[in-house]
Amino acid sequence: MKLESAEAMSMASRHPEAVPKEELVRFEGVSKSFGALQAVHGVSLSVAEGEFITLVGPSGCGKSTLLNMTAGLFEPTEGRVTYRGELVRPYNRKVGYMTQSDHLLHWRTVERNIAVPLEIARMPRPQIRARVEELLELVGLAGFGASYPGELSGGMRKRCALARLLAYDPETLLFDEPFAALDAQLRLKMQMEIRRIVAKLNKTVLFVTHDLDEAVALADRCVVFAGRPGTIKEVLDIPLPRERDLFGIRHNADYVGMTARLWDEMAPAAAQCGG
Ligand SMILES: Nc1ncnc2c1ncn2[C@@H]1O[C@H](COP(=O)(O)OP(=O)(O)O)[C@@H](O)[C@H]1O
Ligand SMILES: [Mg+2]
């Protein structure tokens, strides 16, 4: 009995998502066509508040299309996408979107880049200043507010784009291969930052990647996407603790097992998808 309850406690800490949470995003039988081309077919998926979901799959399988539908940029051709039970319409203001290109304004300093959404929201200047300071601290850019994007390293630019994304406090973050252009070490560092920040702010995340290691390392659940049109092949629960050391997990048996399984899954999927 004692052992059982200890086991239950350890399960609860390993799977905090086991506690029922409110559903944020729901895809119900979603298909999307662009003219004659069907990009996505029959996708059903429910994302709970606070979950970190990765979407992995070869190029052209419709991963970005799913994010775009979540943001209300595209409407599904069939099925429904809802957010907190409401049909998603252009545009879903509850989400923030970050892609591979950071779209920083090179003529504005770091702090004035981060301030853009706050200026648009007409926040008073003193409040903007305080909020920007807080964000600089959060993303590890304290002291760089007066720098220009051109003076920053690749990782610092990502941090700046992340701070700007967080400025208007979106409930759900959509990431579309944000670190694809970074070298392996920098990518790892940014992955650690993302998990730290997301946990601290209790954000819900949909993170698209074609990097299978990244898909496992970051996720609470990993959605394996494949085919043309793209369909969900499998949804994997990632049995890693919520607080995880992304350096250390390279030696974790669960991590090694999951990535190996994903590689096995994706080999035929990649062949199916073509180049
Ligand atoms: N706006 C669009 N207009 C026409 N075709 C599109 C558009 N967006 C995506 N597609 C097509 O839909 C398919 C899926 O694309 P995408 O969602 O970008 O895949 P992924 O992100 O997995 O690489 C591709 O064949 C792509 O060319
Ligand atoms: Mg894409």
Describe this structure in words.
The chain is of the alpha/beta class and 275 residues long. The protein is 38% helix and 24% strand. The protein is built from 9 helices and 10 strands. The strands form 2 sheets. A 6-stranded mixed sheet has the order 6-7-8-3-9-10, with helices on both faces. Strands 2-1-4-5 form a 4-stranded antiparallel sheet, with helices on one face. A hairpin with a 2-residue loop joins strand 4 and strand 5. The longest helix is centred in the C-terminal third of the chain and has 21 residues. The protein is globular, with a radius of gyration of 19 Å. It starts with a helix and ends with a helix. The N terminus is likely disordered. Adenosine-5'-diphosphate binds next to strand 2 and helix 2.
